[in-house]
Specification:
The chain has 182 residues and is mainly alpha-helical. It contains 10 helices and 4 strands, in the order H-H-E-H-H-E-H-H-E-H-H-E-H-H. The strands form 2 sheets. The protein has a two-stranded antiparallel ribbon with strand order 1-2. Strands 3-4 form a two-stranded antiparallel sheet.
C-alpha cells in the first residue's frame, strides 16, 4: 500500500455507511478521517491511545476506568482496537444519537461481561468510574444502589436492557449521570 503523499481515501463502503448512519456530509467525514489518520496512522486506535485522548478531555479526574468502559463499548467487534467506522459511530451516538440510541449504548457500557443484563457490581463499577473521571468521589456507591433499585423493576437482581431504557428515559437526572454530566 504505497501512499505517495496524496490524501488518504476512505473506502466507498465506509463513506456510504457513515453518511447513512451519522447524517454527516462527505467533506466532514473526509475531514474526520484525515484527522483520525493523523492520530492513528495505522487506521486503528489502540486502547492506550484512546485512554490518552480521553484523559486530555477530563484532566481533572482519572479517566482510565471510564475510558476503558467506553473503549470496550466502541470496539464493537472486540478486536482490541477501534477503527474509523467504530470511532465515528461512537462519536455520533454519544453526541447526536437519539435518547434511545444513547441509552442502548450506555447499557452496553454497563454490561461489562456482555451477557445482556447488568448486575449490581457492574453498575457499581461503572458509576464509580464516572464519578472518578469527574473528580468527585463522594457517595457513588449509594448512587449506584439507588440507580440499580430504580431500574431493577422486577427485583430479580438483574437489570435488562428494557428495564434500563425505560427507567432512564423517564429520568433526566439519571440521563445526566449516565452521560457523565454532573
Amino acid at each position: 500500500m504505497g501512499n505517495s503523499g496524496g490524501k488518504a481515501k476512505i473506502s466507498k463502503e465506509d463513506m456510504q455507511f457513515l453518511q447513512e448512519k451519522t447524517q454527516l456530509d462527505k467533506d466532514s467525514i473526509q475531514e474526520w478521517y484525515e484527522g483520525f489518520l493523523r492520530d492513528c496512522p495505522s487506521g486503528e486506535l489502540s486502547q492506550t491511545k484512546f485512554i490518552a485522548m480521553y484523559s486530555k478531555i477530563f484532566p481533572s479526574g482519572n479517566a482510565d476506568n471510564f475510558s476503558q468502559n467506553i473503549f470496550r463499548t466502541f470496539d464493537t467487534n472486540n478486536s482490541g482496537t477501534i477503527d474509523f467506522r467504530e470511532f465515528m459511530l461512537a462519536l455520533h451516538v454519544t453526541s447526536k444519537g437519539s435518547p434511545e440510541e444513547k441509552l442502548a449504548w450506555a447499557f452496553r457500557m454497563y454490561d461489562v461481561d456482555g451477557n445482556g443484563s447488568i448486575e449490581f457490581n457492574e453498575m457499581k463499577r461503572v458509576v464509580g468510574a464516572v464519578y472518578e473521571m469527574l473528580g468527585t468521589e463522594a457517595g457513588h456507591s449509594g448512587k449506584a444502589q439507588e440507580l440499580f433499585d430504580k431500574m431493577d423493576q422486577n427485583s430479580d437482581g438483574l437489570v435488562s436492557q428494557e428495564e434500563f431504557v425505560e427507567v432512564c428515559s423517564r429520568d433526566q437526572d439519571l440521563l445526566n449521570i449516565l452521560q457523565g454530566k454532573s
